[in-house]
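Annex B, item 7. Sequence and structure tokens for protein A, then protein B.
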Amino acid sequence: MHTVLITGASRGIGAACAREFACEGYRVAIHYHNSEDKARALCDELTAAGQEAMIVKADVCDSAEVRQMIAAVEERFGFIDVLVNNAGIALQKLFTETTDDEWEKLIATDLSSVFYCSKAVAPMMIREHRGCIVNVASMWGEVGASCEVAYSAAKAGVIGLTKALAKELGPSGIRVNAVSPGVTMTDMMAGFSDEDVAALREDTPLCTLGKPEDIARAVVFLASQKANYITGQILGVNGGMVI
């Protein structure tokens, strides 16, 4: 049986990924930082359905806590076959009004966490000559978004990290890819008005916005044997908004 660790898995895209991987027979490690109740409820949901799951707490901006998290998952489930770097935050704010603290927090959460988590699982994957890392980027990391400079920069960094790491780990049999979601109806959309949401829907060629399950299915595909000759790729799941 395979094991997947999903960061930021208590809700949204992360929770959808947990459910999709569980349906594929994976043991699921559900990471959370603050939302213990939601993470525990999701874990209970999966175990009640006869699937193996655990929760693990860590601040993914702290490399020491990340290493402890990886060790806890290994102790319970053994080798981590798949790492999904999903944890992230958003910031809609004018560039000139973005504070140093906001910049540093967003870069730490959305980009540095990917580095820390990937670095923590890489040695075991290299030793086993197998494994898969799937990062959650964003279409704004590809094309940039006004009033989301920090977020766009962090997700662009995730894309660059994905491509470079795929080249470095490929000879060790490890695949590294990313999904690049478009506008997806998660908690990150809470600050958008109905008018803003309607405008984004109209700007999307498929005339609908994404659901967490849409992104999760792409993540599971990239982690599967169906994608065993795919690495270093950024899979856009955006309804055609960025082509």
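Protein B:
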Amino acid sequence: MCDILKIDRKLRGKLGKIYAVGVGPGSPKYVTGIVKEIIQDSDIVIGYRYTLKTIRDLLPGKEVHEITMNNQEDSYQKILPVLGNRSLVIPFTGDVNFSESEVVDRLIEVFGKVEIIPGLSSIQIAASKAQIPLDKSKVITLHVTTSIEEKKLELQKALIDGYSVILVPRPWPKQPEKHFMPSEIAIYLKRNNFQTEDMKVHVYEALTTEDETSFVGSVKDLEDKEFSDLSVMVFNQTELDSYMNYRWQWEH
């Protein structure tokens, strides 16, 4: 094990630049200028199919590796000893700093120094469409592999406290006990004594793409409805509160 660690450190000390970048929710229009430049100047790109589709016009001439959840670790380990001083980009859908910490932490473990470049997240787009200010909302992601029981309680508390909530649900169809999408969330809230028929909710799918859809209704209406793994929920409890309510601050 010590020898392996020494080899890894030696390799990582000679590597070219490694970037983890956010490429936005899905439309190429939402890829930032700096991210475009980094991808265009890179040698190797490793990413998921949906993410690579977003930046496909930037990939000609690159060495491209399409990965899945099942083979991403093998791909990282195979590229490490042959990367040399070439630059590597790992693109993430949305913002690399949101819902991706488990993967980013692993990239740092494997490659050492990783430069992180943020991108626009679907939660920002959803907040804008629902006209929900982020500074008056709670943002919760259930898109993790660890237990979400504490996050469920966090959701309850935020709603009880009157906050709007922007929520990324958890798709896990192969393990139904971990699957926690809008239908399951609606049933969960009802079982915990929320009046779901009176709670306003938006559900957005595939934001910014040609496949974008939106649902607006009550939380109760979500029961038994199916949504894709590209869904974002917005629980709308916002009331208008402009600066005109605080004129005493500047008027004398």
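Comment on protein B: DSSP finds eight helices and ten strands in the chain.
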